## 1
Amino acid sequence: MAEPTVFRAEGIGKSYPGVRANDDVSFAVRPGEIHALLGENGAGKSTLVKMIYGLVRPDEGRMFLLDAPHAPHDPRAARAAGVAMVFQHFSLFDALTVAENIALGMENPPPRRELAARITQVSHDFGLPLNPARRIVTLSAGERQRVEIIRCLLQNPRLLIMDEPTSVLTPQEAELLFATLRKLAEAGTAILYISHKLEEIRAHCDRATILRHGRVVESCDPRAHSARDLAAMMVGGQMRQIDRSGRQAGEVLLEVRGLSMPAPDAEGTALKDIALTLRAGEILGIGGVAGNGQEELLAALSGEVASRPGTVTLVAADLSAKGPEPRRVAGLLAAPEDRLGHAAVPDFSLIENTLLTAGARKGLVRRGLIDHAAARDYALAVIRDFDVRTPGPHVAARALSGGNLQKFVIGREVMQSPRVLVVNQPTWGVDAGAAAAVRQSLLDLARRGAGVIVISQDLDELLELSDRFCALNEGRLSPPVPTEGLTLDRIGLMLGGAHGMEEARI
Amino acid sequence: MMIDPLSVFLLLLGASTPILFAALGELVVERAGVLNLGVEGMMITGALAGFGAAYSTGNPFLGFLVAACAGAAISMLFAALTQVFLANQVASGLALTLFGLGLAAMLGKPFEGVRAPAMPAGPLRINWIVWLGLVMVPLVWWFLNRTRSGLILRAVGENHEAAHALGYNIRLTRLAAIAFGGAMAGVGGAFISIATVLQWTEGMTAGAGWIALAIVVFSNWTAPGVLAGAWLFGGVTVLQLRLQAAGVAVPVQLLSMAPYLATIIVLVAISARQKFSRRAGTGAPGSLGTNFHALR
């Protein structure tokens, strides 16, 4: 090989019991390159980068960093060799300060005062201002990510791995992140960038390696392909076209007026004077960066938290003081974000999980007794109609993959024919095929005359599904705008812009 | 009624020392994310081992050393269960307490009715071990907040997933913390048998281990808070003894209850404050009481 590489993998393989996570994976990252690693959930991206970072050991194959063999036995060895990583789920310590968090990610941190000065300096240079004495709990998601990035930058890495870094950022914040990455790349750092946001990768990455079922299926220049092509490579077949036709807005179903609520706990967000109307056959999209009141809004609509009289009205019936069960009976259903633990009980079977929300509307409970046959039939119907891949309805919810459980959770609500359905993050962490199925089921539900509210952080999803769009920012809901002709840029501004980030100065 | 503040304070120092040691040890254990409910069992083990060694050799200081080793040794039983076999921490801790109490009662028979050797008084005629306990407070604080090892220990207790992702050894850190907690509980227990009661009786720690656990919560997981909690408890204990001696017309049982009642009231007050104040959370370590298993 004549071309210099920063990192090279040759024939990497890794198996877990019952799963071949990686199989004969080879690729190379050149200096100054932003290299995308693309693939569906479960395609083996995370396992691969964990091996590079020393968290997991490969079963076979070899890795090279700067042409020297790279076989770190733990992350500290990987860091010493020049690999840094920003994790998908933040690897931060909430109760500790910014400086302490950064010190933990370094091999030989300087004394406290010197470290604080260097953090201030570097964060300023890269346009990511940070106060080293702040505790992590007090920081926003965007600020937390800055901490992770600064922690990496202070080590002058040769290879920087970023695992889905933009999922918690507004489009403007993501732009600034890429400006920073581009500058780093120009300074010679190679960047390995994991994402499934295709447009983002097309706009910013120099090369893409696409994984499917643990194997490399394609290595290409993402700018030379359309997002549709890239998706087809990821999935290994054509994507289903979403059908939006045949819907028209009818009478007003749900009306929310002056809904205010204090934050449920120290990390929560207070809802401030929320107002919205939802018509039959309409899909209202609510966008926003995580932690701006999404969960609180869902709780207020589903009935987990009661609100002042007159704030939540379903077709002239005031439901403000009612709990989830009366609201379900009235036709207001909800599917929360967290599949395991909130929408479904992990250790309950699928049959038992149907009883939790469909008991009353589907007549699965009579005089306080469970009609087991009816519950089983309903669970089977959801499994059949929503193509949930499971050995049977007796399987525990936690045994299903994320996509399959999500299809089940959404299906359980949709098949109760609600008048209004509220969903939060309906396709979060779900593979592309299941996501398309979930989205289509929401559109079909609206076509049959129900009102649907989709709360999501995936802006492409909101643009695809919704008729009108509202932004949720620090617990306030913007007035709705028609989705027709709305651009990502405009949405970004509605979501509060860049939250105080600045352009890198080096 | 004759209650001289200085003498009450000196008595308070003595009464608070066993729980101060045990609670400081448990503080470090809990900051590493481990909930060891076996403090009582480790204390009684230390009380017996320390007394036995001091009586046999005639050297009380050797007794405390042996007590520390015995406490650490028996804590390794808990460590093996929870860190190697990933057993439930609450159940394992309770088992350790019951096991320690039973074992000490059985092995302690030969030492019943004999007297501990006299201890030389330390500076200001205050016991050396009392001084050691007072020195341990800033030492533990300094270790937790100012050293790299302390930072790693807190990181492990706060979020073991993230600490593992950064390459720190969760199991080793927790084993070390548990051993330290065991040694401290052992010394605390030995203080009761060697320096306070001067003899061995079955079950002589009388719930001090449970009070130590409560004081760690009371302290909001800080070393100065542990000292305050230990002194509060020690103070109430001494006061009720004084009131009894002075013949106050209150049933003895009520007075004996007072320290425990005070602990309950303070704990309720603390959690009420945390519930109604809008400030961020409690000081409880994020991973407290949960086991960690890494997939490699």
## 2
Amino acid sequence: MKPPGILRVLRPAVASFVAIALAYLLIPNLVIVPLSFSAQEYLTFPPAGFSTKWYARLAANPDWINAAANSLVIGVPTALLSMVLGTLAALAVVRGSLRWAGLAASMVVAPMMLPHVILAIGLYPVMLELGLLRSHAAAIIAHTVVGFPLAFITVMASLRGSDGKLELAAMTLGATPWQAFWKVTFPAIRPGVAVGGILAFASSFDELMLALFLTGATTRTLPRLLWEQMSDFLTPVIAAAATLIVAFSMVLLLLAVLLERKPARPREVA
Amino acid sequence: MTSRGADLVVERLSKSYGGQAALRPTDLAIKAGEFFSLIGPSGSGKSTLLGCIAGFVTPTAGRIAIAGADVVDVPPYRRNIGMVFQNYALFPHLSVFENVAFPLRLRKIGSAEIQDRVKRMLETVRLAEYGDRSPAQLSGGQQQRVALARSAVYDPQLLLMDEPLGALDKNLREEMQYEIRRFHANMGATIVYVTHDQDEAATMSHRIGIMRDGALVQTGAPRELYENPANAFVAGFLGEANLYDVRDLRPGPGGALKVVTVDGLELEAEAGKAVPAGSLVACVRPEAVSLAGTDAGPVIAGTVEDIIFTAGTVRCRIATPQGARVLMRRPLERHRQAVAVGDAVKLSYRPADILLIAKE
């Protein structure tokens, strides 16, 4: 398929525009990488010399190890909860006969649009009252509010792409609604559910505001520790930690992209 | 593997959505093993009726009995029916074999028996070699044959088909019509078949039900409906018809009945037949009209306005001096005594072929 004439003329221009846009999106994230290999004792730009000692120091510091563990302990349940809630909400909106499906969908997505600080201020007294403040549970609950809309959106997209008649067909063939979901609907939306889970995990893994309000010294996440270290010690250890976080997030996003592309394959015949 | 189909009884069944009647109170009885088609324009309620029988649509009132058992409160998955959809509805993540095996696996049938039954079923629809393929690798006709196999492999007592050939092109449709008839003859299940294609319904069914505005207008064998339509809608929907609003009926020559139409045509009909009450329409089938030969009889004079050739037949539209239009259809071969546009012709017909039917 050839592009229309005007686009063909503009092609080099369009290509360079895309390149600039991508550079604009990525470079700020990558500036941190050379800083982490600096040989100097504090953060300077441009960095001077080359050293990997900051990575060694990072690995030796139990604070960073604990923060990484906390991020996982909070991120994984957040992802699981988001996948379950997002799938249920998407099923209700796409397959259900809700009168206010559009409004319900907007309300599910709303937490994504609202400033996290407002959510944080609202959740703080609630968690205090429940005695959950500074617990992992508090962060999981808060992050799920933000992660669940992400899973909702991806699952909704894959549900819209799969034919609702398949579930009816399964039911005429003798499948209960529960069986129809697991044997027919779920295989069709599995990539959407997985991508939603990854995005929810990534959003939790990168989230600072809610973590600042709701976690404590023993439950603080990587972004929160990063934040605290920024104000106390400006050493390249911070850059090393940030580099690893960026790398990890990119791997997650890459995984999400690969999952979305993967075509459904029929099961082998026994 | 012949299975006895179940009989289906529908009594005073109705469905309305927010005061809007999608199905008016409907009665219908289908015999075990019968091939019954529902036809009608879109929005006539045929899919609603089928949905109620399948269990996807909860009727507002009325009763449905399959093999004598009331099923209105039975969910679709326990009605033991099969259903074939227009877009095939094959499971894209399963192979052809697994699609057909799906209902058997749900019924916890042993894997040796599943192998055996699926294999035999795929042979029946002539897809024995295609078990490992993915549905996406098959043509539309092949996919619909898989869907057919899947809907019948567990010997359902009732098979519902919702415009199963609607997505196929003409040649394939005809091949599949034959396929489904053969299938029905082998399986013996009761089939309720929804289509908007009257030829398809006439080709395949023992009986047809014609629907309009959420109501069943008439049911009967295809020929019965064609020869004795209940009203002008049925006459016009099933086959072609010349329909004229009747203004007056009066005694004609030789004890015949003279029919005067609103557009001034004067026709002779057989006297002594029962005539429905209310507004009448005179119906003449295009093949009941021919060029007047030597034999005497009533004639319609007019001018040939248009001639249309289709495979095997010629249709001529004749305009009468009063401004009425008469469609004449005859086999292509006989067109040797050629008529041309503009010719003055006389059309003859038998008074018995003038049907006086209700307008509504």
